Each structure stands twice: as structure tokens, then as C-alpha cells.
Amino acid sequence: MVFVDQKDGTYAVRVNDQSMAGSPQHFYRLSVGTFPLVTGVFPPTIGAGREAAVALTGFNLPAAAVAKVPASPTGVVAVAVDAERFRVVRPPMVRVAAEPTVVEVEPNDAPAKAQVVAIPAYVEGRIFAAAAPGAIDVDLFRFEARRGRTLVVETEAERRGSPVDTKIEILAADGKPVPRLLLQAVRDSYIT
Q1: End-to-end C-alpha distance for the chain, whole angstroms
Q2: Which helix (H) or strand (E) holds 131?
Q3: Residue whose C-alpha is closest to residue 99's, from 82, 74, 130, 124
Q4: What is the pLDDT of residue 190?
Q5: Average pLDDT per run of 10 along the chain, which is 192 residues long?
Q6: How far apart are CA 44 and CA 157, in angstroms?
Q7: Which is it for strands 87-88 and 37-42: parallel, antiparallel or unpaired?
Q8: I need a surface site. Which of 76, 90, 115, 129 has the fewest CB within 10 A?
Q9: 3-state secondary structure string, 154-191?
Q10: What pLDDT, on a 0 to 100 scale, did the predictor assign at position 191?
Q11: Which class for 119: exposed (0-12), middle (13-18), buried (19 or more C-beta within 10 A)?
């Protein structure tokens, strides 16, 4: 659990068993503090056959916290995190891919500024906190599609240790959403 102080004051931590059971075998260790905690890495996909450096992500980390990933064949590889410097709940994983990997480049938040990617590809991006109140960061990518070809478009975020809850929309060249489903009432209804 990560807690951000809402205001100065005294707080309490309650620890119990979910099923309200207990025995001498029900033990735990509670840690409270500003420990450097690694929850993931960026980019979460690297190229096969070459060493890579990935940025550690999480809480209370120094600005340049990185880890080296040795050259590996394709697959999923655990990133070795320095246990002397950082806490980690589970080792972060990177996907090692033969396909091209593209890292998102800002600004790409409008259809006219959409970053061009050649498919198939892995795109690694970040959603940053908005600089202005009420603003949100969105990332747009442009690709070529052919009639009748089925493309799979998916994101991996939570599975890679990210807190982002992604939403995907396919937009036409003019920036308008491409309809995926059209509903129409077939009986008398107040809703159309």
C-alpha cells in the first residue's frame, strides 16, 4: 500500500487477517517510511539480443534510478533490482521482442501531431500528470491500415506494474472516433 499524507497529523495503521482468523502461524512484518519502492520499469519492452538500461519506476526513487538488462533472446525477463538500495515487492519484468519498439515522443496529443508508427510494432509510452488543472495527457499514434485486415490493438499497463487504467479509441484521419457499434431501439422506447 502506498499512502500520501493528506495533511500533517497523527495516523494509525490497522492490520488484520481478511477472514478475521489468527494463530501463531499468522505472522507479518509491517514497514512504514519513505522507502524507495520499485513497482515497474520503463520501457517495459526492449529489443532482443542487446543489453538495455531501463528506468525504475515507483515511489521515493532517485531521479536517475536505472537497472541494466543483459542481452537476451525473445521472451519475458526479470529485471535485477539492487536490493541494497531499493525495495521491490516482486521483480519487474520486461518483454524482450524481435519486433520494432518505438518510444513515444511528445507532443503527440492532437491528430495533427500523432506520432507515426509502422506496424507491427510495440509502442512504449507514458501518461504524465497534467501541467494545467483539468488538462489530461493523451497520446496519439498514426498507422496505415488496409481494408479487411484485422488488427489487434491492446495495451499492457497493470500487468507491467503501471497504475494507468488505459482507454483506447481508434480515430479517423480527421480525429473523429471510428464507430465500432451502432445501437438502435427496435421497440417503442423513450431512448433512441
Answers
A1: 44
A2: none
A3: 74
A4: 65
A5: 78 86 85 89 88 92 93 90 89 86 87 89 82 79 88 83 82 85 69 58
A6: 9
A7: parallel
A8: 129
A9: CCCCHHHCCCCCCCCCCECCCCCECCCCCCCCCCCCCC
A10: 61
A11: middle
- One-letter amino acid at 88 equals V
Q: Which three cell numbers stand for residue 180?
A: 465500432
C-alpha cell at 55: 528506468
The answer to whether the CB of 141 falls within 8 A of the CB of 121 is no
Cα dihedral value 105, 107, 108, 111, nearest 10: -150
Burial 120-151 (b: 16+ CB within 10 A, else e): eebbebebeeeeeeeeeeebbbebeeeeeeee
142 CB-near residues (< 8 Å, 6+ apart): 114, 115, 116, 117
Residue with cell 538500495: 85
Q: Which of 82, 80, 78 is nearest to 36 (CA)?
A: 82
d(CA 43, CA 154) in angstroms, rounded, equals 16
Q: Is 155 exposed, middle or buried (0-12, 13-18, 19+ CB in 10 A)?
A: middle
